[in-house]
Amino acid sequence: MRGDAAGLPVPDLSGLAAREGMDPVITRHRHEVKRRTLTVLSATRITPNMLRIVFGGEDLADFTSLSPDDHVKLIVPGAGDQPEMRDYTPRAFDAAARRLTIDFALHEAGAATQWALAAKPGDRLQIGGPRGSAVVTAAFDWWLLIGDETALPALGRRIEELPAGTRVTSLGLVTAAEEEQRFDTAAELTALWLHRPAAAVADPAPVIAALERLQLPEGRGFIWIAAEAGVARAARDHFLTRRNHPRGWLKAAGYWVKGVADGHDKMLD
Ligand SMILES: Cc1cc2nc3c(=O)[nH]c(=O)nc-3n(C[C@H](O)[C@H](O)[C@H](O)COP(=O)(O)OP(=O)(O)OC[C@H]3O[C@@H](n4cnc5c(N)ncnc54)[C@H](O)[C@@H]3O)c2cc1C
Asked: What are the beta bridge partners of residue 161?
């Protein structure tokens, strides 16, 4: 991690807040980029299509993840000689126990999904990062978190880490009730779920229809969106153009792109 003389992270205050002329909303931290070799400790289905893998290893001694929407690069075998890299969220990290948890949303095909499906205790995996963390530092009256299966790890971690009493509404996009998850939190959580068929996970229409019905609370609110890129973009546009939500109080990312291996659009806003 880049640091000042006291070894503290140096925030980069450029970006969203400056455009809004208000206190910084997001503070960016850079971390030393490092490759780590981890060992699989366990692999458990937490829902029929969500596989939780807990990793351990001494390489985690100096692992840092400051924001729930951080990501690490998983380095997995590819079809040819070259390995493939895929982005995944540190769902949980226990520094004392040197344990890192990653949740895999299972889908039809892909190098990372295949690796995860075959993983068993004792298997090894190399990871890189996180390269940086974008920490929401401003205070908000409420939060709205919208995420599909790939974003539930970040969404769940955010809910769990919000301080006691914070008003947060989540909208989880899943295929069925059995894919819904429970998040333990001290925040005041309203958890909403939208079910859409597997064939429609990249279709913005059902999500936008749900957003049209959603009433936003009064006051300053931060909206976080992550899903298939077209869905995330449509949801972002809904809040910016239909609701006039301030651009600097919203963060949207495409976590995958339909039909594209390793496709993403991390900085829609
Ligand atoms: C910042 C960030 C954090 C992320 N965190 C997580 C996480 O914690 N857990 C997680 O599961 N994913 C997460 N993702 C999404 C994950 O990186 C992608 O889904 C990735 O494409 C999966 O790699 P793969 O090798 O399985 O499939 P790929 O080889 O990349 O893709 C193969 C095919 O599958 C399609 N595809 C990819 N993902 C899905 C999906 N979810 N549903 C249906 N089709 C899909 C692609 O469009 C492509 O056609 C994150 C992405 C980003 C950018």
From this structure: none
- 47-106 pLDDT, tens digit per residue, is 999 999 999 999 999 999 999 999 999 999 998 899 999 999 999 999 999 999 999 999
Final residue of a structural domain among 110, 132, 154? 132
CA dist., res. 54 & res. 264, Å (int): 24
**Cα–Cα distances in angstroms (integers) from residue 42 to residues 35, 39, 53, 123, 232, in the given order:** 21, 9, 6, 10, 32
> Considering only CA atoms, which residue is closest to atom 53 of ligand 1?
255
Tell me the C-alpha to C-alpha distance, in Å, between residue 165 and each of 28, 69, 141: 25, 21, 10
What's the CA-to-centroid distance between 180 and ligand 1, angstroms? 19
Give the whole-angstrom CA distance, residue 258 versus residue 167. 33
User: Any idea what the CATH number is for the domain that residue 170 is in?
Assistant: 3.40.50.80
In this structure, the answer to whether residues 60 and 123 fall within a common structural domain is: yes
Return the beta strands (E) in 137-211 as ranges: 142-147, 167-174, 188-195
Report which residue type is found at 222.
F
What residues are in contact with ligand 1 under a 6 Å CB criterion?
71, 86-89, 103-105, 107, 109-113, 149-150, 153, 201, 255-264, 266
Measured between alpha carbons, how far is 226 from 154 in angstroms, rounded to an integer? 9
Reference 72, options 15, 133, 23, 8; nearest CA is 133
The 10 Å Cβ neighbour count of residue 145 is: 26
Same domain, residue pair 57 and 150: no
- Tell if the pTM clears 0.85, that is, is over it: yes
